[in-house]
Amino acid sequence: MRDELRARREETWRLLVEMGIGYSDAVARIAENFDCNESTVKTDISRMETWIGELDVAYYSGVSRLRELRQQRQRLNQMALEARQQEDLTTEKSVRQEIRQNLESDMRMSQRLGLTNEEPQQFELAQGLEPEDEELLDEFCGVEGEAVSLEEMA
Predict the structure, then answer these.
(1) What are the alphabetically sorted keywords of the record (predicted)?
(2) Quick one: pLDDT at residue 109?
(3) Are 34 and 84 members of one domain?
């Protein structure tokens, strides 16, 4: 399946199934976003059963799961920043724990897939992190701004 076709079909699935957008609205959006005729999108939808398995195979590959994990980490970072802006330190601490777990999973998965030779680093929350470890973690997670220590979040 060509990359553009795969992207269009993934978007079709996302809009119709994951987001629950109505058929007509989804068709119009996809046709506009992918610069194709609405009839092409409608044909794709009518044949969804024949191509959905191909998306599944791609989705469940290791690299696809790693990509999803990284997208999830981006959203978690947004949530941590939003919690910080609202001065909700309990939520920020909880979200940062999720980020650390996500990062550890990313490193383990990257290693298993042969994408890195580095040993997974362990970020121990119970013992706290050294300031340079927090900065490294924030850098990996794409957090902008000043690092906040766990003690400050508690």
Answers:
(1) Plasmid
(2) 80
(3) no
